Amino acid sequence: MIPALATLLVFQLLGEVAVRLTGAPVPGPVVGLALLLLALLLRPSALEAIKPTTQGLLQHLSLLFVPAGVGVMQHLQRLGDEALALGVALVVSTLLGLLATAFTLLALMHWQARREGPRDGG
């Protein structure tokens, strides 16, 4: 278990270092996860070494939400004070996300129709 946890932490560290060196606008742990995926694709046998530990972490993933819940409870008054702004931001961002998705879908459908060319009606 310790070597598997060390492996996960090393890849997280590699991701943090890569982000700091490149200034990429991506969280270090995400880059570390991508590097781990690449390593596992190149050496599939390593998966068996970390699989039991990662499955154990995933089984207890809900515990990682406890700090976020505590943070919300500590700032409940502020959330109440900013409720209108938060509500507007949530609604507007959701609508923008839906619009972006719809326009992307329409553009891809148009692109696919042009690529397939005219069809014979028969």
Summarize the structure.
The chain is an all-alpha fold and 122 residues long.
Blueprint (SSEs and pairs):
Elements: H1 2-22, H2 28-42, H3 45-59, H4 66-74, H5 76-81, H6 83-116
Helix pairs in contact: 1-2, 1-3
Membrane topology: Multi-pass membrane protein
Main location: membrane
Protein name: CidA/LrgA family protein
Biggest sheet overview: none
List SSEs in N-to-C order: HHHHHH
Q: How many discrete domains?
A: 2
The radius of gyration computed from the alpha-carbon positions, rounded to a whole number of angstroms, is 22 Å
**Please, how many helices?**
6
- Report the average pLDDT across residues: 91
In helices, the fraction of residues equals over 70%
User: What would you call the quaternary organization?
Assistant: single chain
Strand content: under 5%
Shape: flat
Question: Can you count the beta strands?
Answer: 0
Terminal Cα span: 63 Å
Give the uncertain stretches in residue-range form. Answer: none
> Structural class of the secondary structure composition?
mainly alpha
Organism: Hydrogenophaga crocea
Protein name: CidA/LrgA family protein
Transmembrane segments: 30-50, 57-77, 83-109
Pfam families: LrgA
